[in-house]
From TrEMBL:
<dbReference type="InterPro" id="IPR000780">
    <property type="entry name" value="CheR_MeTrfase"/>
</dbReference>
<dbReference type="InterPro" id="IPR022642">
    <property type="entry name" value="CheR_C"/>
</dbReference>
<feature type="domain" description="CheR-type methyltransferase">
    <location>
        <begin position="8"/>
        <end position="274"/>
    </location>
</feature>
<feature type="region of interest" description="Disordered">
    <location>
        <begin position="285"/>
        <end position="323"/>
    </location>
</feature>
<feature type="repeat" description="TPR">
    <location>
        <begin position="395"/>
        <end position="428"/>
    </location>
</feature>
<dbReference type="Pfam" id="PF01739">
    <property type="entry name" value="CheR"/>
</dbReference>
<keyword id="KW-0489">Methyltransferase</keyword>
<dbReference type="InterPro" id="IPR036804">
    <property type="entry name" value="CheR_N_sf"/>
</dbReference>
<dbReference type="InterPro" id="IPR029063">
    <property type="entry name" value="SAM-dependent_MTases_sf"/>
</dbReference>
<dbReference type="GO" id="GO:0032259">
    <property type="term" value="P:methylation"/>
</dbReference>
<keyword id="KW-0949">S-adenosyl-L-methionine</keyword>
<dbReference type="Pfam" id="PF13432">
    <property type="entry name" value="TPR_16"/>
</dbReference>
<dbReference type="InterPro" id="IPR011990">
    <property type="entry name" value="TPR-like_helical_dom_sf"/>
</dbReference>
<dbReference type="InterPro" id="IPR050903">
    <property type="entry name" value="Bact_Chemotaxis_MeTrfase"/>
</dbReference>
<keyword id="KW-0802">TPR repeat</keyword>
<dbReference type="InterPro" id="IPR019734">
    <property type="entry name" value="TPR_rpt"/>
</dbReference>
<dbReference type="GO" id="GO:0008983">
    <property type="term" value="F:protein-glutamate O-methyltransferase activity"/>
</dbReference>
Length: 492
C-alpha cells in the first residue's frame, strides 16, 4: 500500500517513535501503512489526520495499532547457548553469593512468553520443586495481545522449532490439534505484565533483577532509543547482575553503562557490585597538625576518637594485649581486598579487628558495606542501626540504611534515610542520586531533576574524591552518563 502523498504517515510515525520507540525505516513503512489501513477500516475513520488524532487521545487504540505492528517471532529454547549460560554459570555465580532471597530473572520484550517459559523449564530441570522457592521469572512486553497469549500458555507447532521430543513431553500437555499447554508447575514460576520499555517508570516486579534477557528486541529501535532503554534496564539490575542481549546486538550496547564481560565464550553485560569505601573524617583543631580536607558536609568525628577507634570500656586492657599498629595493618589489608572485589577474606579480617577493638568505626562501616554488597541485608541493617545509635552523626550508617531499604522495596524508608544523610552532608552525591531515583519513580519530576543535577555537578567537580563515601569499584564517568540520561528523560 502506498500513501497518496507519501507524507500522510509522518505524524503517526513520530507519535509511535515518541511513545513506543519503534521506527519504520528500511522497508518497514509498508507494515505501518497496512496496519493503519486495517485499524482505520475497523474504526470507520476516513483520513490519516483523523486517525492520528484518535490514536493521540485514545491509549487503547494506540495499543491495538501496536499489536498489529510488533513482530512476535519467537520460539522455545531460541539461541540455546545464551539460555544455558544464564541457567548455568550466571545463576550459579549469583547464587554462590549466598543471598537469602529468590533470584530474579527478567525477560524484557518477552513477546508471547516462550523465552520466559524456556528459562523456567531449565530451572525446573536443574532444581526441581525447589525452583519455586529459589527463583522468580518475569516477562514483559508492550503488546497486550502477546502478553495475553503468554498468560494462556497454549502454543502451536511453530513455537516448538527448538524443542526436543523429551522436553515437549516433560513440560507440556496436549490440549488440541497440534497445540500444547505449558504445565502448571512451570507457569507458577513465571509472571507476565504489559510494559512499555520506553517508559522509565517500571513496575515493582522488574526492580532489582539479577539477570535480564533483552534479546532480539532492540533491533527495532533507532540508536538513541536503544541507548535509552538499555540504560533504563541497567538501572534495574542488582550489583553483580547480568544483562544478556542477542549476539548481533552486543556491540551496539557497549556505551559505558555496564561492563562488557566474556563468559563461556559468549559476551554479556555485568553491573559491577556496588561497594562502599569509607575514608577518615577529622575534626580540625586549632593550632593542630595539618589534616586532609573533607568534602563539603563531611561529618567530623569526636575529638576523643583516634584513627577511627571510639573509646570503649576496658579499652586500656585491649591496648595492652594488642598492638594498635598491627590492628590497623589488618584493617588496611581488609580494605585493599574489598577494593579488589573480594568479600569473604576481608570479612574474616574485620572480625579479627573488631574482636580487638569493637568500637573501630571504620571497620564497622566497612563490614556493613560488604554485607550490603553481599545482600545479607538483615545483618547489615542491624549493624547500621547500631552505628547510627552509637554515633548519630554517622553518615555511612544512614546511607547504607537507605540502600538496604531500596533493596527491600521500602522507598519511604529509603528516602527518609537519604534525607538524613543529606542533612549531615549536602555534598554527598550518592544520597543525592538515590533520592532522585526514588523521586523519579514517584513522578516527583521537579525534585528528581534537581537531585540528578546536583549529583552530576558533584561528580563532574570530583568532590567525591576527598573525604567522601564512594563505591570501591566506582566509575565516575558511568554515573555521570546515568545522571545525564535520567535528566534527558525528565525533560521529555
Amino acid at each position: 500500500m502506498q500513501n497518496r502523498d507519501g507524507g500522510e504517515l509522518g505524524p503517526l510515525k513520530e507519535l509511535i517513535l515518541r511513545t513506543c520507540g519503534f521506527t519504520f525505516e528500511q522497508g518497514r513503512e509498508r507494515s505501518l501503512a497496512e496496519g493503519v489501513a486495517a485499524r482505520m477500516a475497523e474504526r470507520g475513520v476516513d483520513s490519516h489526520s483523523a486517525y492520528h488524532a484518535l490514536v493521540a487521545r485514545d491509549r487503547e487504540e494506540l495499543n491495538a495499532l501496536v499489536e498489529l505492528l510488533t513482530v512476535n517471532e519467537t520460539y522455545f529454547f531460541r539461541e540455546p547457548d545464551h539460555l544455558n549460560l544464564v541457567a548455568g554459570l550466571l545463576l550459579g555465580e549469583i547464587m554462590a553469593a549466598g543471598e537469602a532471597r529468590p533470584v530474579k530473572i527478567l525477560s524484557a520484550g518477552c513477546s508471547t512468553g516462550e523465552e520466559a517459559y524456556s528459562i523456567a523449564m531449565m530451572l525446573r530441570e536443574r532444581w526441581g520443586a525447589e525452583s519455586e522457592r529459589l527463583f522468580t521469572v518475569t516477562g514483559v512486553d508492550i503488546d497486550s495481545g502477546a502478553v495475553a497469549a503468554a498468560l494462556r500458555g497454549v502454543y502451536g507447532r511453530g513455537s516448538f522449532r527448538g524443542t526436543g521430543a523429551e522436553q515437549l513431553q516433560r513440560h507440556f500437555d496436549p490440549v488440541g490439534q497440534g497445540e500444547y499447554r505449558v504445565r502448571e508447575e512451570i507457569r507458577k514460576l513465571v509472571r507476565f505484565e504489559v510494559v512499555n520499555l520506553l517508559n522509565p517508570f517500571y513496575p515493582q516486579a522488574m526492580q532489582l533483577s539479577d539477570v535480564i534477557l533483552y534479546r532480539n528486541v532492540s533491533i527495532y529501535f533507532p540508536q538513541e532509543v536503544q541507548r535509552r532503554i538499555f540504560s533504563n534496564l541497567a538501572g534495574l539490575l542488582n550489583g553483580g547482575g547480568y544483562l544478556v542481549v542477542g549476539a548481533t546486538e552486543t556491540i551496539h550496547h557497549d556505551i559505558g553503562v555496564l561492563s562488557l564481560v566474556q563468559r563461556n565464550a559468549l559476551f554479556c553485560y555485568r553491573k559491577e557490585p556496588l561497594q562502599f569505601r569509607f575514608v577518615e573524617r577529622r575534626e580540625a583543631r586549632r593550632n593542630g597538625p595539618p589534616v586532609t580536607r573533607s568534602a563539603p558536609g563531611a561529618v567530623p568525628r569526636s575529638p576523643h576518637s583516634r584513627e577511627g577507634v571510639r573509646p570503649q570500656p576496658g579499652e586500656g586492657k585491649q591496648k595492652a594485649a594488642w598492638d594498635p599498629g598491627e590492628t590497623k595493618a589488618l584493617f588496611d589489608t581488609a580494605l585493599e581486598l574489598a577494593c579488589q572485589g573480594k568479600a569473604d577474606e576481608p570479612l574474616e579480617l574485620l572480625e579479627t579487628v573488631l574482636s580487638r577493638h569493637p568500637g573501630f568505626a571504620k571497620a564497622l562501616t566497612l563490614k556493613a558495606s560488604l554485607l550490603v554488597n553481599a545482600q545479607h541485608l538483615e545483618e547489615a541493617a542491624g549493624l547500621c542501626q547500631g552505628l547510627v545509635a552509637r554515633d548519630p552523626l554517622c553518615l555511612e550508617g544512614y546511607l547504607m540504611l537507605g540502600v538496604i531499604a531500596r533493596h527491600l522495596g521500602d522507598e519511604e524508608e529509603g528516602l527518609k534515610r537519604f534525607r538524613e544523610a543529606l542533612y549531615l552532608a549536602p555534598g554527598c552525591w550518592l544520597a543525592q542520586f538515590y533520592s532522585a531515583e526514588i523521586l523519579a519513580g514517584r513522578k516527583d519530576l521537579k525534585r528528581a531533576r534537581s537531585g540528578y543535577e546536583t549529583a552530576l555537578r558533584l561528580l563532574e567537580k570530583g568532590e567525591f574524591r576527598e573525604g567522601a563515601l564512594f563505591p570501591l569499584s566506582f566509575n565516575a564517568g558511568q554515573f555521570q552518563a546515568i545522571c545525564r540520561h535520567k535528566l534527558s528523560q525528565l525533560k521529555e
